[in-house]
Amino acid sequence: MYDEDIQRLIAQYLPSEVQAGPAEIRRYSDELVIILSIADSIEAIPRLREQTRRERMRIAREIERLSGLPVAWGMRVANHEVLFTTRTVPVMTRLGRAEREVLDLLVAVGIADTRSSALAYIARAFAYEHREWLAEVRLAVGEMARVRARLQLTPRPGPPVVPPEPTSGA
Questions:
Q1: Do residues 81 and 66 make contact, with C-beta atoms less than 8 angstroms apart?
Q2: Which of 82, 65, 76 has the alpha carbon at shortest distance from 40?
Q3: Over the stretch 70-92, which tens digit does the pLDDT of each residue have?
Q4: If you ran DSSP here, which 8-state letter would residue 32 be given?
């Protein structure tokens, strides 16, 4: 399913309140995340989330049927984004004693209730603290993906042409 098809479904089924701009569609190997732009205030997100639940579920079922990927949703007002219905997946990692002590400290003081939630807290804190840098990196990665896709879309017929090596005079 193409992004244009998803945009068409959104335009067809969702109210104009959640279409202040085109939806942002983030593609991952295991999930599609659709971020709706709204023109209202941040306080309107819970209301709009509930009002659009049935239509979003209908759209998600259609996307999942055609793409085989689960759909998660979010809404954005200006620079504030709220994600809902996103998946959590286990991530295996090896941590040294010092890193585990940090996680255990976050649990001990009540910031997190498990090592897993402590690690998620640290990842969110890093993402917030370095958001400008991460935005720059995302653009660079996107550009690399665009260049790779362009190279893959233009196959070269036959073997590469290699110029002959110059011969040295005797």
A1: no
A2: 76
A3: 999 999 998 889 998 777 888 88
A4: E
